[in-house]
Amino acid sequence: MLPTRFEHFTIISYIIWGYTMKTTLRFLAGLVCTFMLLGGCGGQKKIEPVAVGEMEMYKDPAVGFQIQHPKGWVVNAQVGRAAFYNAAEVDKKFLDPTGAGTIGVEIAVTVTKSPNPVDAIKKWREERTAEFYQLQADQVVTVAGKEATKTAFSANYGNKNVINGHHIFIPVDSTLYDLSFAGFGDHYNAYAAVFDATLKSFQLPKAPEKGRDETLPSETFAEYDAKMFTFQYPDNFNFTNPPKGKNEIVAGFRSDKRQDCNILFDVFGAQGLSLEKVFDQNRGRYKGATAGKATVGGQPAMTVTLSATKDVERRVYFTVKNDKVVRITMDWFKPQRTEYLAAYEKVISSIKFK
Predict the structure, then answer these.
(1) pTM of the model
(2) pLDDT at 203 exceeding the cut of 50
(3) Which fold has domain 221-353?
(4) Are 196 and 70 in contact (CB under 8 A)?
């Protein structure tokens, strides 16, 4: 029996519907596969290269080496050893790669005394090889003006816990400086630019000048990048961490021999005000101060000079750049006024706005 006209139409409709559904499902399946490929295998997102942002200076309080690290990173430090992590709990993951913790990167500086630093480097290679590290051939590099050895490595702890990294060994007399840069999986390559910037900032400790008063500012200066501007400061001043508050940028430095000798930079919005109006609004906070004029980074500046305490004098600079107020506060020990002011003038003259 032949199908009726209605039955014939129904059969054709089912055929078209079935074909459409198969095509749609194929399209959706292809779309899902595309998204999976773009998102990475197993749903993991590709780690994009991390740009170098604002940096902070760390100075070992006893050994005296200095190194910059990204601002806001977690710092674990003690004399002769400093480690920096891009997030909380990353240190736990490096201590126990198969345990709890956060995947991330580590930058570390370790200083050890050794009668023969070159032999210590060889011993490190032997120990890592015994631990089944994959070590690449040593490379000769130059760091902080010294010949150094770079050794790249990879360590597989199983269950996708792979640490990639490299060590920079700098032998100096009877001391070995070990700078290590490492990351889990693709994090290592993603932070390559940060690692390079940190390595370039590393400074070996300066030998004290014989016969010179150690409480005075050093005649050797270090470079600091405050994002909006750069400047130099005496390298025997340690970086401090003053509270940021509502300021956009804060950077503090203190003499390693005198706690009352400080340099403080803070930057906040000018809200459209001119230098003169900014100065008038702030001048009242400094009672008994003497006003003056100066130049900071090629910009006109205004100053106040006053006694902060019985034995400490203070000078505060104000300048306005791109609707930002840059305030620089400098304290010094009165009996050493001449020497400190000479050093502070070098700091002011070194400022360069970006």
Answers:
(1) 0.60
(2) yes
(3) Protein Transport Mog1p; Chain A (3.40.1000)
(4) no
